Amino acid sequence: ETGVTQTPRHLVMGMTNKKSLKCEQHLGHNAMYWYKQSAKKPLELMFVYNFKEQTENNSVPSRFSPECPNSSHLFLHLHTLQPEDSALYLCASSQDLNYGYTFGSGTRLTVV
Amino acid sequence: AQSVAQPEDQVNVAEGNPLTVKCTYSVSGNPYLFWYVQYPNRGLQFLLKYITGDNLVKGSYGFEAEFNKSQTSFHLKKPSALVSDSALYFCAVRDPDSNYQLIWGAGTKLIIKP
């Protein structure tokens, strides 16, 4: 275990469903990130939170909604997704914005 | 524009042979460079980083990388490959003079054959 825990590990959802991905870290890190990983494409940064404040939203569609209630937890709320949203969603944390990341194992999302 | 290139989608190496996974970058300032490894069905794991100092950086699992400023490269190397090194390897760069975001390469699949 890396210290960053993501649940669920796998998720299959219909296009009309609402679901949430959860990320938890107890490393004392202050920054948390959501990434999307699709096959044969570079990692896509979706959202960045630093000290619970969202600092980046890289033109992510509104059907993805992040929530960071405290420095240890990060959620990604999903609704009315499209099949092209199927991917591995990775959460990461870092001591601050200038440090390397610790990644979770990811949630494999399939939209049907 | 800032970018990272990993020119090889896949690298095949025989066990016991040296391996190299290539990475070149383009940033406007002095780069922070990283290598991460991803095993199947897992998240990315940090291998090593270059911030400043010695151009040869040693990391986890016997890997090392050499920062070459003139060639804007940061190739990952290991003297003797193991079958267990088979994984997906990602190079990333951060331009500290621009913003804190990591720019990622597309990844290189490393296959070590017994």
Structure, described:
The complex is a heterodimer of chains A (112) and B (114). Chain A is mostly beta strands and 112 residues long. Chain A is built from no helices and eleven strands. Chain A has strands at residues 4-7, 10-13, 18-25, 31-37, 44-50, 53-57, 64-70, 73-79, 87-94, 102-103, 107-111. In chain A, strands 2, 4, 5, 6, 9, 10 and 11 form a seven-stranded mixed beta sheet that branches. In chain A, strands 1-3-8-7 form a four-stranded antiparallel beta sheet, with no helix packed on it. In chain A, a hairpin with a 6-residue loop joins β4 and β5. The radius of gyration of chain A is 13 Å and the shape is globular. The termini of chain A are far apart. With 114 residues, chain B is an all-beta fold. Chain B has no helices and twelve strands. Chain B has strands spanning 3-5, 10-14, 19-21, 24-26, 32-38, 44-50, 56-58, 64-68, 73-78, 87-94, 103-104, 108-113. In chain B, strands 2, 5, 6, 10, 11 and 12 form a six-stranded mixed beta sheet that branches. The relative contact order of chain B is 0.34. The mean pLDDT of chain B is 91. At the A-B interface, β10 of A face β5, β6 and β11 of B.
What integer is the average pLDDT of chain A? 91
- Strand-residue fraction of chain A? over 45%
What multimeric state do the chains show? Answer: heterodimer
Main pleated sheet of chain B: 6 strands, mixed
Sheet having the most strands of chain A: 7 strands, mixed
The poorly predicted ranges of chain A are none
Number of strands of chain B: 12
Strand content of chain B: over 45%
Give the low-pLDDT segments of chain B: none
Rg of chain A, Cα atoms, Å? 13 Å
- Amount of helix of chain A: under 10%
The secondary-structure element order of chain B is: EEEEEEEEEEEE
Distance between the termini of chain A: 30 Å
Q: What is the tally of helical segments of chain A?
A: 0
